[in-house]
Design brief:
Region (Disordered): 242-268
Number of domains: 1
Keywords: Membrane, Transmembrane, Transmembrane helix
CATH class: Mainly Alpha
Strand order of the largest sheet: 1-2
Protein name: Large neutral amino acids transporter small subunit 4
Distance between the termini: 29 Å
Shape: globular
CATH superfamily: MFS general substrate transporter like domains
Strand content: under 5%
Biased composition (Polar residues): 242-251
Number of helices: 23
Number of strands: 4
CATH architecture: Up-down Bundle
Mean pLDDT: 81
Largest sheet: 2 strands, antiparallel
Radius of gyration: 24 Å
Organism: Folsomia candida (Springtail)
Length: 494
Amino acid sequence: MHLWKRIVFIGIGFFESLTVTGIIFGWPALVHVFQLEGIFSHFCLEDAKSQGEYNTNGTEFANTSDTNSSIIIRCPRQDNMFGLLYSLMIAMYGIPSALVGFSLDYAGLRFTRVTSGAMMIGGFIWVGLATAANPWMVWPGMLLISFGSNGMRLSSLQCGNAWPAKRSTIMFCYTSAHAASTLVFLMFQYANAAGISLRSTSFVMSAVCGITLISSFILPKMKVEYQPKLSLGNNEVNDADNNSIPLNKINTDTEESKGNQSPSGKEPDVKIPLGLSIKTMSFVFHNVWLVNIYMTRFYVTSFNTWAWKTTDDPNQIAFYNSFSGICLIISPFINPIGGLITDFMTKRADKKNDPIERLAAKFRAPAFVLTLASALTLAVYICKISYSPNAVYVSIVLISIVRPISIASLYSYVQLRFYPEHFNRLTGISYTIISIVGLLQYPQYLWLFKSEESYLWASYTFCFMILLTFISPGHLLVTSLTRKFAAKEIRNRK
């Protein structure tokens, strides 16, 4: 592939990762805007009216400035409604992932991108039309945005195939940008403070999403081909030169076949059933590890309610969101280190002569970042045990790092541990599983904030669940297991 085409494809994926793919995870800032706009405030007014006064049943009227120009009306019923909406958004974001994965493989990249982009455009139009008088419009709007942004996320990963040798680093850059895309809703908050309405910012974002429709016709119709470097003896061969080299002279210990070499010396063309990836110990442990993804999402679900328990000042809540934005700006410069480490481990594995050991070493390459993601997620939830502003700040710093690391390590792990041709479907299936489990977020949210005692028990339970995720990187460090997995994969390739 020509260099300019690689740059264009990777640039498109990065732009979309930065603007739309992780936008729903900026939910706390958008909730703040919704509260300022009076969305679902009628629940609080109804409760206050039924009680005959404004400060019963948890209803609060908080000034956002000394001039009393803006007032936030909040109450438990409103908080619960926002919690329910976000729980369903997360489900809509992830459950159709398997469908999106199969769509990419069979309907093609362009169809998937155009469909997802159209959903996001429609979603922002619905949100822009929502007011205190018709708050229900945020429901179809946010659900369409959730579905569409997930489709764009999985589609943008295809762009990383344009540069196979740097794919892990590209994935970490994409997921850092994906995490930074939560700043979009923080921009909504700043725009609202500057007097720009929710309607105006929503319509601007629908126009930005329209750019994805144009770029869909720049990218290939079906997929960005994954063309790794091949080896000819001890010399690497660039993918751009593959067509000029006879297949019978090319060793098949490529990144795509992961060390397998057929007896004839020709590149094997064996169709591997998806079940061979799914029915493995590694895939089972991988789904346990996905608890980290689930818990980073639940952090967003519960953040606003937790933050309000540390302060009664709406300006402090706004500052929490601003501080989160600052951390997200810094994190893209830190998080690619994980990709560089994985790429380094993969290249070191390529130097091994024994094909089984070479493939086993590649399986072990993502173990470090998987462990790091679990450790950081555990640290976040230890912070959440406390109602302290300092704990909030520390958790914001940690979550801004762990979210992109956990997502990127998921992608690199699936790419390296399983058959590459299963990547789209396995990624989709994994996200579908964790999103179905994510339907528990709303009852989990209610349990967490039911009482002080339930808060502690729930927090300890979450920490225990995260501890279980260390089993996934742990089993990769057992050399006898990875060699067994490698030998089996090489046999299946023949």
